[in-house]
Write a structure and sequence with these properties.
single chain; Rossmann fold
Length: about 550
């Protein structure tokens, strides 16, 4: 079976007669999920020196499980009749202490029971080499600490204790040093390998190592090149496959290209793209959203919808930053979608429908609240200002300074005060004028002390009450201001708000889309009348209330 451990295939080696030389070179630098291991595949290029010595070289750079399996099978077949055997393995290695494996390019975070066909057993390779005692070399290119993370406590990134068979030589070096040794010393014809190993401090040897060891054969004579010149290579088939591969733009497509053309012209691009795709789990979803070509206004609309549904985007700016993506992800989770943070047409439509429904619910809720506040306002008026006396008017204005009867109460109260002022004595008037001039608590208290029953007693007491009232809730005002800013109203919408306030007789000043002092006063009057928090800012509750007052028309969308 294809998914049996590679160990099983290697162990099936029959021991036969030896005649020629065979080499297997595996170098893995570009790991799809485990990160690159610098220069680990240099050994593949360095293996050209073995070919000049007549070796039948099976080499593979950045092999995945399937291509590595094919290379191993080819080497096993060649090894049956080989006189000399050389195996070079360079990349990320893991061990359980007694066994060691080289990970293939498509390996994921390794665990002891999940290595499967994505790891090559070093022990099995040593068994193959044992068939050529005294004529077998294993070269391992590995970093002392390559940073490979394992998925359990049974594996670690390292070369374990190797049980080296008799007559087999094991050489170890860093990947770049292993490539250099393979290209130079190990490819030198008739060189004394024992001397070369001893002279290279970057290479460590274990196992079989005699004092004198002319391991390699003489250099093979290379036939002269074709006098007609190098033939032109037709790349049309590869080019066509690459065009189809990039159109599909999937990991499987790029892997299929690499299997078909392991030495092709687009290997670098294919490996890079595979790594990019695997590094971005939601890449396909991102590309789907990008195909929608959402405008800045469309993104603002989505942010408003999310905010209306209580998924905070921290502003409506048309930019999908981390906060907006988090809001989308939370909405997707609540609605049973994969949490990609990227939207599809269907999801946008559903989100918009939910926001419209929520706006209608808020408008209905606001209308109910407005009617309830209006009933309370009317009932309080009937018990206070409706009785037609000064205490009643003042009581009403104290509770509802911007209520629906506030203007009438002030008008009648002014008339009462006017009548009283006309009857006031000159001294009383002078004392009152002095109190008014100071406009201080002490001034009004001095007036009452001098004229405890003066004509302006009630008004002085009212001024004192006003001056001793607690300050407005600054925290609530700050919060309302922030909500108004978050709405990001364009000028035309601000003008519509001012027009609505003017239609209600609240005098917002010039209708120019700029919220000035007159607009703030009108907003406070409206909020007081609607039973909302009186801040003077167009917070979310006030905006919804205004919409509810506008003949049931829902929020228009940009």
């Amino acid at each position: 079976m294809r998914h049996l451990l590679i160990t099983t295939i290697l162990a099936a080696l029959p021991l036969g007669a030896m005649a020629e030389d065979a080499a297997l070179v595996l170098g893995v630098e570009r790991y799809e999920r485990l990160g690159r291991l610098s220069r680990a595949d240099d050994v593949v290029v360095a293996a050209q020196g073995l070919e000049t010595l007549g070796f039948d070289v099976t080499s593979l750079a950045n092999g995945r499980a399937d291509t590595t399996l094919a290379a191993l099978n080819d080497f096993v077949a060649e090894a049956e009749d080989a006189e000399r055997l050389v195996v070079v393995m360079s990349g990320r290695f893991v061990t359980d202490g007694s066994r060691t494996w080289l990970l293939t390019a498509d390996a994921e975070t390794p665990t002891l029971l999940s290595l499967g066909d994505k790891a090559v057993s070093v022990e099995s390779v040593l068994r193959i080499l044992a068939s050529a005692q005294g004529r077998a070399v294993l070269m391992i290119g590995a970093e002392a600490d390559d940073g490979t993370e394992t998925g359990d406590a049974y594996l670690r990134a390292a070369i374990g204790v190797l049980d080296i068979p008799q007559g087999v030589t094991v050489l170890r070096a860093a990947p770049a040093d292993a490539a250099a040794f393979l290209a130079e010393e190990l490819s030198a014809p008739e060189a004394d390998l024992a001397v070369l190993i001893a002279a290279n401090p970057r290479v460590r040897a274990a196992g079989y190592l005699p004092a004198t060891w002319p391991f390699m054969p003489s250099e093979v004579t290379v036939e002269p090149a074709d006098p007609l010149g190098t033939p032109v290579v037709d790349t049309s088939v590869e080019d066509a496959l690459w065009e189809e591969t990039t159109a599909l733009d999937t990991v499987d497509a790029y892997r299929a290209y690499l299997r078909r053309f392991p030495d092709g012209n687009y290997i670098e691009a294919a490996e890079t793209t595979i790594a990019e795709i695997l590094a971005e789990p939601n890449r396909a979803d991102r590309l789907i959203e990008e195909e929608l070509h959402l405008s800045r206004d469309a993104r603002r609309e989505i942010q408003r919808d999310l905010t209306a549904l209580d998924f905070n985007t921290r502003g409506v700016d048309g930019i999908f930053g981390p906060i907006s993506r988090g809001a989308i992800r939370n909405w997707q989770q609540e609605n049973g979608y994969p949490q990609t943070s990227y939207l599809t047409t269907e999801q946008i439509s559903r989100l918009d429908a939910q926001a419209e429904r929520r706006a209608a619910e808020l408008a209905a809720e606001a209308e109910r609240e407005r009617l309830a506040q209006a009933r309370l306002d009317r009932a309080f008026w009937d018990e206070t200002g409706g009785r037609g006396d000064e205490p009643g008017y003042r009581a009403y204005l104290g509770r509802y300074p911007e209520g629906q009867f506030a203007a009438l109460a002030r008008q009648r109260l002014a008339a009462i005060v006017g009548e009283r002022e006309a009857a006031a004595t000159a001294l009383d008037r002078a004392a009152w004028d002095r109190a008014l001039a100071t406009e201080t608590l002490a001034g009004f208290q001095a007036y009452l002390a001098a004229y405890p029953e003066g004509a302006f007693k009630a008004e002085a007491e009212a001024r004192i009450a006003e001056l001793t009232e607690p300050a407005e809730d600054t925290a609530a005002i700050d919060a309302a201001r922030a909500q108004e800013e978050a709405l990001g109203l364009p000028q035309i919408r601000a003008q519509l708000v001012e027009l609505r306030l003017r239609e209600m007789g609240l005098n917002p000043g010039v209708v120019d889309g700029e919220f000035d002092a007159d607009t703030r006063t009108a907003l406070r009057a409206y909020q007081e009348n609607a039973g909302l928090g009186v801040t003077g800012y167009l917070d979310r509750a006030t905006a919804v209330q205004l919409l509810a007052d506008s003949f049931g028309i829902r929020i228009e969308r940009q």
